[in-house]
Amino acid sequence: MKSKQIGKVVRLNKQGSYELELNGNVIRFDGRGVVSDDYVNKYHEDIHSLVSEIRGEWGLLGLVSGVGILTPTAEEKLVASIKQRKLYGMKGCALVVSQAVIPPLVQSQFERIFHASELLFCFCKTEKEGLIWLESIGCFRDTY
Q1: Is residue 64 part of a domain?
Q2: What is the pTM of this model?
Q3: At a CB cut-off of 8 Å and minimum separation 6, what does 85 contact?
Q4: Of 3, 72, 88, 103, which residue is the least packed, with the fewest Cβ within 10 Å?
Q5: Cα–Cα distance measured from residue 127 to residue 19, given in angstroms and rounded to the nearest whole number
C-alpha cells in the first residue's frame, strides 16, 4: 500500500549522524560515522516511529558513508532490531556502501547482520540500483 511521504528524522552526534526519510513504503537511511550502542538504540526508536505509519510491508534503502562500522555490541543490537522490524513488515534492505571508507569491510559486517537477521538484502552500487531492487520485492517510493 502506498502512502505519501510522512516522516523525516535527523540525528547528529560526535561519532556519526543519520537521516531517515519515509516515502511510499521505503525508508531511506543516510548514515555516516561509527555506529555505537546509543546510535543503534536511537535509530531503532526513530525507525519504529516511522514504521508505525506504514500499513503492510516496507523496505529500507541504506546509504553508508564515512567509517560505517558498528561496534560489536551495536552489531548485536542491530540484529535484534531487524528481527523485531521484520515482525512489523520489513521485507528487505538495499544497501549502498560505495562511499564508505573501506567498502568491503562494511559490506562484510552487514552481510553477517543480514544473515543473522534472516533478512532479504542486496548490495548496490547506486541509490537508483537500490530502488530498482526494492521495487522488485514490492517496495516503492511515491516520488524520486
Answers
A1: yes
A2: 0.88
A3: 47, 48, 51
A4: 72
A5: 15
- The CATH number covering residue 33 comes to 3.30.750.24
Query: Can you list the positions of beta strands (E) in 86-141?
Result: 90-100, 120-124
The number of domains in the chain is: 1
Instruction: Determine contact, residues 74/40, Cβ cutoff 8 Å.
Output: yes
Q: Quick one: DSSP state of residue 89?
A: T
Question: Is the dihedral angle over the CA atoms 61, 112, 107, 35 positive or is it negative?
Answer: positive
Using a 10 angstrom Cβ sphere, with 0-12 exposed, 13-18 middle and 19 or more buried, the burial of residue 3 is middle
**Span between the terminal Cα atoms of the chain, in Å:** 17
How many other β-carbons are positioned within 10 Å of the β-carbon of residue 116? 15
Phi, psi of 34 (to 5 degrees): -85, 140
CA distance 34 to 17: 9
Whether residue 141 lies inside any domain: the answer is no
How confident is the prediction along the chain (144 residues), in pLDDT tens digits per residue? Answer: 334 445 666 655 556 788 999 999 999 999 988 888 888 888 889 998 898 888 899 999 999 999 988 999 999 999 999 999 999 999 999 999 999 999 999 999 999 999 999 999 999 999 999 999 999 999 999 865
